[in-house]
Write a structure and sequence with these properties.
Elements (H helix, E strand, L loop, with lengths): L7 H5 L3 H11 L18 H10 L1 H9 L2 H8 L6 H14 L5 E11 L2 E11 L5 E13 L9 E3 L6 H10 L8 H6 L8 E13 L21 E7 L13 E4 L10 E2 L8 H12 L6 E8 L5 E10 L9
Parallel strand pairs: 3-5, 5-6, 6-10
Antiparallel strand pairs: 1-2, 2-3, 3-4, 7-9, 8-10, 9-10
Helix pairs in contact: 2-6
Length: about 325
Amino acid sequence: MHPLPKDSFMDSLRDPVVRDLAWVIGSPGLLDETWPAYAGRVVDDVWCRAQFKTGFQWLAELDNTPHSLHDFIAQRPTRRLGQYFESLIAFWLAHITDTQIIATNLQVQNEQRTVGEYDFLFCDADGDICHWETAVKFYLQAQPLSEQQAFIGLAVRDRLDIKLNRVFQHQLELGHTPAGRAALPQGVVLKKTQAFIKGYLFYPVTQAGNFFNSVTPIPGVSDNHLSGWWMRHPVGSLLQTTVDSCWTILPRLRFLAPVRLDAEASVMRQNEICAALDAHFAVLDEPVQVIELQRNMDNSWREVTRGFVVCSKWPDINS
């Protein structure tokens, strides 16, 4: 498993939504932008990190007075993580110097049937019209294969290879179709079409407490992708980095940035997290994301690992 990246600036931010915004901008992407099939069609990490560093002062000011960001998100209420992710991107793009958003979620119709949509159309600082397809994804390795098809989404129907095939073979090709061109605002000619895809891959954890992950790179996946572990319920204990670790359970809209909690926050010990998982799976089959926490020098709690606990039947949850 790749260790959680250390970022002193990210670590300095306290507001959870501002931290999520910073994560959207500066976290490593899931895709390998040098993979031949994706070359030139992925928003690369170098550009994102440059934007992240350029935005340090802006993000720090937002962290002190986050009302504008909170209001922006509140105007777009959702329970879906993907829509929250898109709202953060929209707020970010609107604040990049010399960047103008042209449209978001612009539907493409063909004979009164929706065949797709442009997630983001904007004019960048170079004057180029850009089309971004965006997604934040969490996939679990369900087979011991270093291939995209081995990674399954939490809802099981979703799979990494299927998602990426749709992004690159359909969504990013919309601008080259008659219906896609007809949907563009008058005078708009696309110059760049790129995927902006972030998230985590989660690998099975063995009974010995070691992470299973083939050393062979996964085709099309960045070597720097964020990752965690997963295991099936029931669990006698969770893998701990130290004996002093504590735990928290994340709601879906808090899946993005590394967790930081105040010193007084309510956290769980090993026996408490296991009891909470037992109570959850007694009535539900939905996976639970859990965060291992350790005390920082200022006594606050910081994330050190994250993982999913899934039901005993996963991925055959309908059997």
